[in-house]
Each structure stands twice: as structure tokens, then as C-alpha cells.
Specification:
heterodimer; A: alpha/beta; Rossmann fold; six-stranded mixed β-sheet; four-stranded antiparallel β-sheet; 10 strands; globular; B: MetI-like fold; transport (chain A); ABC_transporter_ATP-bind (chain A); ABC_transporter-like_CS (chain A)
Chain lengths: 274, 261
């Protein structure tokens, strides 16, 4: 296990919810075996059912690679990933994924882009049209169902991508820096919407980001990663109450969490303080 | 509206340039009086055409039909081969080796062989048109099928998409713009192929008209066939271009014209 700052707290919450994703001594190397590039080394982490966990770290720390291993898109070189007790061989069932780029298909309307996940999963297009429309409505895209992706702004496109990931009601949602390409205001908007969605419960979310504030605002726990080699340096428990309005970011508690993580970053030599 | 205006404007200026060149040509012939066997005046070419328009149009019709048949087959077969190439490493090696070999061989040199095999009807012309056109289709469609956003494929895999549905719902639509690039090249090559076929053997088509007119030193007649070929080639190109506008309104290169927003 990675060193924990609040082992007591973790043990307490761990007892209340079963493990959703278990990562055990995971390593991922690239390149020639003789001279490997080590993206991840000896990563162990347990994500519990229903929790929102962020993987936070600077670029190149392997956080996206770790997420891709959990998604079954990338194979670990050593160690194992288990989702609900089952070792992975390919993407597990019941997951949804949101990427940094929305990867909407230009030749499909927004509605059809959302429906593609149902089509791929063989759940039928017609059966899901109602649900897709309802999702678009909830994410403020009700009037844009018949538009093409290139007619929408970046934030709207990413909302549509989230709808696509949610269409088949995944109980594990993987998000790879989904708001990294958006402007600060749109990012705030989407943070609030995502926070509201999490509030409804029933969903485990693993969220990759390089923004400390974003991670603290959204998460139940934040796993801070360091680079060369990529590993989990420490896991922070974020005990801020929910629902969390944006203004929670001005509270001293919020500041304390951000401060703790930032000081870890500087101790790890990942940021300079001057 | 603005767009339509701009396009009519473009068409008008193209026409003006063409008319200007024709006037210059006519004036030069009138001034220097070259023998018509070297260079006939545009007016002479027009009167020659108007003497027997039905004959010329019938020959043009034959060339058009062999061109379109060869082109159509090259698209169908080319897309099928491209799908095969991207779906298996073995097919990739075999198909690409054969195609590159065939493409490096001057197909004009193969034309007589096809006449021996298939006779002097439409078949060898269609085959040569097909062979000239297909390489552009396969090369471009393979590129289009392969250059898919890796994240789009990851999205499909996370949703447990079957290889067939990935092909139909992501790879193929993604390759359509490349297919049209290939088709624009291929349609001109198909016309070249059809003419080459008519040169080598046969008794119909504009290539045949040129060959027989050459035998009689009937230069104006050669020019009539050339002008018709030029018009035909241009129209074929714009036909594919129009098809692209109709079928791919979503593509970046078309958005200005789509006028959706």
C-alpha cells in the first residue's frame, strides 16, 4: 500500500464500502526490455464502491496510463488490476469513459453521438433515444440534439461526451482530464454539474486531473502521484461536506486541503515555491 | 446567398478566361494563316463538330460509358481491397505488393494484352480504366481507414464495440473524405484508361475518332475529339465534387458551403 496520511480514516471508510477497483503492485514499462521507460512502478491503490477518487499529478506522472490500465485499454507490465474482484482482460463491463478530447464524431448529430455507446454495446438505438434526450436535457443540451458537434462550443461538446459515457448507466466512470482543454469558467460550470451528478450516488468515479483545486473540490479522496517513476506518493481524504457549492473553495477547510497537497508537491520537488 | 453569388462570379470569370483564350487563338490563326493540318481555328473545329454532331456524341457516349464503368468498378473494388488491407496483416502484404507491382508497370504497355484476352469491345477499355483508377482509391481509402483518432477507438473499445461496428461506424465514415480525394484523381485516370484502350484496339469512342482522324491527317477532327474529352473530363471531376458536397456536408472542407449556421 502507498503511505497514507490518515490511515485511521481510510480504514474506517474502507470498512463501510466494498472495493470496486483494486490495483496491486502495478507497473507499466515502455520501450525495449533492456532499457525500459518506466511509466508506472509499484502502484497499489484501492478504490471503493461509490467513492470519487482523483488521480492528481504533474504531466508525465503516469496518471493517464494508470487510468487506461483500469479501463482495460492498456496492459500492466507487472502487477494486476481487479475490478469487482475480477482480474482484467480487456475493458470491464459497466464502465463509462470520458477523454480529454470529446471524440465526438463529426458525421453524427449530438443525439446520435450520445447514442453510439448504446449501439456499440448492442443495447439498441431506439430503446435509448428517450434516455439520451433526457440526459442531454439535464446537461443543458436539450435544444442541440440535432446539431453537429462542430456547431457547439468546447464546453457543450464535453457535456455531450459525458452524456455518451452516462447513457448506458455505468457504475464505474473513468474521466481522463475531461476539463483540461476548457476555459476556467466553463470548467467551474462542469465541476458543479459533475459534483451534482456524484451527489446522486451509486457511481464510482476515478478522475484524472493536474489541478489541485479541481481534485479537492470533486473528490472523496485524492491520490497524489509523483513522476519518474510514476507512483502514488500519498492519498488524501477530503472530508468536506456535500453538497459542495463553488464557494466552498473560499473556506479555510478547502484551503487547508489544497495547502496540504501543495506542500507535498513541493516536498516531492514537483513544484517550486517562490 | 453570398456564397451562391461568389460561386457564380467564379464561374463567370472562368468563362471569361476561356472565351478570351479562344478569341486569341482565332485571331492568331487568322493572322498567321497556319495550314489547318497544323492548327485549325476554333471556328473550324466548331463547324466540323456541327457537321456530324450525332456521330461525335455517339462516340463520346461510348467513351463516357467505359470510363464510368471502369471508375465505378474501381471504387467498389478499391474500397473492398482497402478494407481487406486494414483488417489483416497478410492481406495488407499480399494486396499492397500486387498493387504496387501493377502500378509501377506502365499500364499502357498492358493494354495490348487485354485486347488479346478480351477482344475489341468495351471490356478491355473498362479493365484498363479500372486498373489505372484503382490505385488512387485503395491508397487513399487505406489511409482514411487507418488515420482514425486513437481516442475514438478507445471509446469504442470501452463500449465493447465489435470490429465490424468499429469499421462501419468509425473507420468507414472517417475514410469518406479520403475516398473522395481518391475518387477525384481516379475519375481522370479512368478517362485516360478508356482512351488508351480505344487507341489499342476497337471501333468506337473518342480515342478511336482521334486515331482514325490522325490516319487521314484530319486535324480539325482530332481537335473536336480533344475538346469533347476536355469538357467530359471537367464535368466528371465536378460530378464527383458535387457528390462530395451532397454526401459529406459535415466535413471541414465543406462547412463553408453547408450554410447550416
Amino acid at each position: 500500500m502507498a503511505p497514507l496520511e490518515h490511515p485511521g480514516l481510510e480504514a474506517m471508510t474502507e470498512a463501510t464500502a466494498p472495493a470496486c477497483v483494486e490495483i496491486e503492485r502495478l507497473g507499466r514499462h515502455y520501450g525495449l526490455p533492456a532499457k525500459p521507460i518506466v511509466a508506472l512502478q509499484d502502484v497499489s491503490l484501492t478504490v471503493r464502491e461509490g467513492e470519487f477518487l482523483s488521480l492528481l499529478g504533474p504531466s508525465g506522472c503516469g496518471k493517464s496510463t494508470l487510468l487506461r490500465c483500469i479501463a482495460g485499454l492498456d496492459k500492466p507490465t507487472t502487477g494486476a488490476v481487479r475490478v469487482r474482484g475480477k482480474p482484467l482482460s480487456g475493458p470491464p463491463a459497466g464502465i463509462g469513459m470520458v477523454f480529454q478530447r470529446d471524440v465526438l464524431l463529426d458525421w453524427r448529430t449530438i443525439l446520435d453521438n450520445v447514442l453510439i455507446s448504446a449501439e456499440f454495446q448492442g443495447r439498441g438505438r431506439k430503446e435509448n433515444i428517450g434516455r439520451a434526450r433526457a440526459l442531454l436535457e439535464r446537461f443543458g443540451l436539450g435544444g442541440f440534439a440535432d446539431r453537429r458537434p462542430w456547431e457547439l462550443s468546447g464546453g457543450m461538446r464535453q457535456r455531450a461526451a459525458i452524456c455518451r459515457a452516462l447513457l448506458c448507466d455505468p457504475d464505474l466512470l473513468l474521466m481522463d482530464e475531461p476539463f483540461g482543454a476548457l476555459d476556467a469558467m466553463t470548467r467551474d460550470d462542469l465541476n458543479v454539474e459533475l459534483s451534482r451528478l456524484v451527489q446522486l450516488g451509486g457511481r464510482t468515479v476515478i478522475f484524472v486531473t493536474h489541478s489541485i483545486a479541481e481534485a479537492v473540490y470533486l473528490s472523496d479522496r485524492v491520490a497524489v502521484m509523483s513522476r519518474s517513476p510514476g507512483r502514488v506518493a500519498e492519498v488524501f481524504e477530503i472530508d468536506l461536506p456535500r453538497p459542495r457549492p463553488l464557494s466552498i473553495r473560499e473556506t479555510p477547510e478547502f484551503g487547508r486541503h489544497v495547502g496540504q497537497i501543495r506542500s507535498l508537491f513541493s516536498r516531492l520537488g514537483l513544484v517550486r515555491e517562490e | 446567398m453570398e456564397d451562391a453569388l461568389r460561386r457564380t462570379g467564379g464561374l463567370l470569370s472562368t468563362l471569361a478566361v476561356l472565351v478570351g483564350l479562344l478569341v486569341l487563338w482565332e485571331a492568331a490563326v487568322w493572322l498567321f494563316q497556319p495550314p489547318p493540318i497544323l492548327l485549325p481555328a476554333p471556328s473550324r473545329i466548331l463547324t466540323d463538330f456541327l457537321d456530324t454532331p450525332a456521330y461525335f456524341l455517339r462516340q463520346a457516349g461510348f467513351t463516357l460509358w467505359t470510363t464510368l464503368a471502369g471508375f465505378g468498378l474501381s471504387v467498389a473494388l478499391g474500397v473492398a481491397l482497402a478494407v481487406l488491407v486494414v483488417s489483416s496483416r497478410w492481406a495488407d502484404r499480399i494486396v499492397m505488393t500486387v498493387l504496387v507491382m501493377l502500378n509501377s508497370l506502365p499500364k499502357v504497355a498492358l493494354a495490348p494484352l487485354f485486347v488479346i484476352w478480351m477482344g475489341t469491345g468495351a471490356e478491355p477499355k473498362i479493365t484498363i480504366a479500372l486498373m489505372l483508377a484503382i490505385f488512387a482509391i485503395v491508397a487513399d481509402v487505406v489511409l482514411g481507414l487507418r488515420s482514425v483518432d486513437p481516442d475514438a477507438l478507445a471509446m469504442a473499445r470501452v463500449n465493447h464495440a465489435s470490429p465490424l461496428s468499429i469499421l462501419l461506424k468509425i473507420r468507414f465514415p472517417n475514410a469518406l473524405p479520403a475516398l473522395f480525394v481518391g475518387m477525384k484523381v481516379a475519375v481522370s485516370f479512368a478517362l485516360v484508361g478508356a482512351i488508351v484502350g480505344e487507341f489499342v484496339g476497337g471501333s468506337a469512342g473518342l480515342g478511336f475518332v482521334i486515331l482514325t482522324a490522325q490516319g487521314q491527317f484530319d486535324t480539325p477532327r482530332v481537335f473536336v475529339a480533344l475538346v469533347i474529352l476536355g469538357v467530359m473530363g471537367t464535368l466528371l471531376f465536378y460530378f464527383v465534387d458535387m457528390l462530395e458536397r451532397l454526401l459529406l456536408p459535415w466535413h471541414v472542407s465543406q462547412r463553408g458551403q453547408a450554410g447550416g449556421h
